[in-house]
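Q: Convert this sequence to structure tokens.
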Amino acid sequence: MKTLTPFTVAAALLAAASLAQAESVTYAVEPMHTYVTFEARHFGTSTNRGRFDKKEGTITLDRAAKTGRADITIDTASISSGLALFDGHLRGDNFLRVKEFPTAKFTGDQFSFDGDKVSAVSGTLTLLGKTQPITLKATNFNCYDSPMFKREVCGGDFEASLQRSAYGMTYGLPGIPDTIRLVIQIEAVRQ
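A:
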């Protein structure tokens, strides 16, 4: 029978404490405070903006281990620019082809942290049947105890630029630029 030394006991206690502190928590995307928006220059003049009104997903976050996973699905037919005629054009064959590709999906599996706050999420965006790497940089991140949900809510503002041609969306190039600014404002409720 082995004798436990103080060093062995201390190492076991530290290992147990670190396991107890590392906690993976799942959050459900809260649709009232989550917006997926885009910005595109129009022939070098004004900026066209729009949003997707239907989105869902989950975020798994372990702030102690500094890891996480995001799975967000966007209903592409829910695009809204504020103008029905323009929305129809964006849903059609020149842009989102929503009949063929009814959803877009972001999967983030590499979380970067600044202290205990998420500073970026890297992963992939699948759009028009093509999957490309993308990194969403946080311009803001926080968690709070929600008086409405009586649970913890985490979220922030994230943004990235993407080349629409990488997804096969080439209509209007080069007059309508290739670079699209994607902005995601997200809040998710602890489950």
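The radius of gyration is 21 Å.
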